[in-house]
Amino acid sequence: PFIITDNTMVKLGIIKPLEKYLTKFQIRYEIYKDTIPEPTSKSILKAVDILKQGNFDSIIAFGGGSPIDSAKAISALASHGGRMSDYKFPYVLRKKSIPIIAIPTTAGTGSEVTKFTIITDDKTDEKMLCVGPGFLPAAAIVDYELSLTVPARTTADTGIDALTHAIEAYVSKKSNLFSDTQAMAAMKLIFPNLRDVYNNGNNKKAREAVMLGSTLAGMAFSNSSVALVHGMSRPIGANYHVPHGLSNAMLLPLVTQFSIPVSSVKYAECSKAMGAADHKDDNEQANKKLVKELYKLNLDLNVPTPEEYGINKNDFMNKLDILSKQALASGSPYNNPIVPSQDQIKSLYIKLWN
User: Fold this and answer.
1) What's the CA gap between 155 and 168, in Å, rounded?
2) Phi, psi at 91, each rounded to 5°
3) Handedness of CA 297, 299, 302, 306 (dihedral sign)
4) Quick check: 298 and 190 in contact, CB under 8 A?
5) Are 18 and 103 in contact (CB under 8 A)?
6) Could you tell me the mean pLDDT of each successive run of 10 residues in the chain, 354 residues long?
C-alpha cells in the first residue's frame, strides 16, 4: 500500500498503530505525508508520480477529509491520467481506480464513504467538485479513538460539516428512502453530542456517536446530495482559505431559514430528530426552534463570523459576482428545496455580514 496522510499524523505519532500492524504482517509500505488542508490540483502531483513509479497495489488514506480527498484524486490521476480539471462535475468517473482503504481521524467529512472529492484549481481558485463511483473507497475503517486527540476548533468545524451533510441529504431534491434513513440516524447521533465533544474531547461515548453519525451522514449525501450550504461554502473556502466545515457552519442557519418555506415538513422532521423541537410541536414551531438552535450551536461552538475570521468586507462585496457564479457552477444549489437565482445567492452572502 501507498499511505497518504499529512505531517501532523506522522509528527504526533497518530499513524504509529497502522505502521505497527503493517510491519507485524511484513507488508511493505511507503508514507506520503505532504498533503495539504483544502488540497489543490498542484499539491497532489508529486504523490501521483510516486504512485505511478512505485510497485503499489492499493492506497491507505489516513487522516481527515483533506488526505482522503487527496488520495481519491491521486488514485484517479495515477489510474487514468489527464488533469484534475478533466474530472470536474458534470463529468462522472465510472472507471475503476487504484483501490483505497480510508481511515478517517476526524468526525466530519464522511469522505471515507462517498463518491466525491473536492480539489481546488490552482489557476482559478475554484473548488472543483469531482464525482463518480471511481472515487469511492473500497473500504473504510472507522475508529472513533483516532478522533480523541482532535483539537476543539477542528472538532466543531468537522462536526457541523457532518450535521450539514445529514440535513442537506434529507431535504435535497435527490433524497430517497435509503438516504433519508441514514440522514435521520446521523442527526440523532451528531446534534445531541456535538457540544460534548467540543467541550470535552475525551468523552468517548460522545466521540463514538459523532464519528458514527459522520459516516452515516457521508453515506446519506453520497446516495442523495448536498445542497445550497455546500454550494455557497466552497467559494468562501477557495477565495478566503476558510476551512470547509467552518464556512458551512457560517452558512447553515441562514440557508436553512431561507429554504424552510418550500420544505417545511422535512425541516420540521430534522428539528424533531435533532431534539431541537418536541414531537408535539407543529411544523412552524419546530422550524422556528430549528433555526434558533442552529444559531445557538454556532455561538456555543464559537463559530466566527466572516468578519471575525478576518475576511475583508469590501473585498468580499466586490467578489459577490464571482462567489455566486462559482456557487451555482458547483451544481449543489440545484438540489436545494428552493433553487436560488444568482441574485438570491448574492443576497444571502450579504446577510452573512448583518
Assistant:
1) 20
2) -60, 140
3) positive
4) no
5) yes
6) 96 95 97 93 96 95 95 97 93 96 94 93 86 96 95 95 97 98 98 97 97 97 95 92 93 98 97 96 98 98 96 97 93 96 97 92
Residue reference for cell 446530495: 225
Torsion over CA: 340, 258, 171, 71 (sign): positive
Closest to 174 measured CA to CA, from 336, 1, 14: 336
d(CA 287, CA 276): 9
185 CA to centre of own chain:
18
DSSP 8-state secondary structure symbol assigned to residue 262 = G
Locate 132 and state its grid cell. 463518480
Task: Please count the other Cβ atoms lying within 10 Å of the Cβ belonging to residue 90.
Answer: 7
CA distance 23 to 103: 18
CA dihedral 342, 232, 77, 80 (to 10 degrees): -50
For residue 140, list its beta bridge partners. 102
Nearest to 305 by CA among 236, 239, 257: 236
Cell numbers found for residue 116: 466525491
Cα separation, 82 vs 78, whole angstroms: 9
Tell which residue, 221, 45, 6, 243, has the closest CA to residue 116. Answer: 221
Q: Choose among 15, 92, 104: nearest CA to 66.
A: 104
Asked if omega into 304 is within 30° of 0 (cis), the reply is no
Sign, Cα dihedral of 162, 269, 329, 216: positive
Q: Which cell is 60 given? A: 491507505
3-state secondary structure of 14: coil
Q: What is the largest CA-CA distance in the chain?
A: 62
Query: CB–CB of 219/182 below 8 Å?
Result: yes
pTM of the model: 0.93
Where would I find the beta strands (DSSP E) of the chain? 2-4, 30-32, 59-63, 100-104, 116-120, 127-131, 139-140
Can you tell me which residue has the cell 488526505?
67
Question: Whole-angstrom distance between the N-terminal and C-terminal Cα of the chain?
Answer: 50
Name the pairing type of β-strands 116-120 and 30-32: unpaired
Distance of alpha carbon 216 from alpha carbon 162, whole angstroms: 9
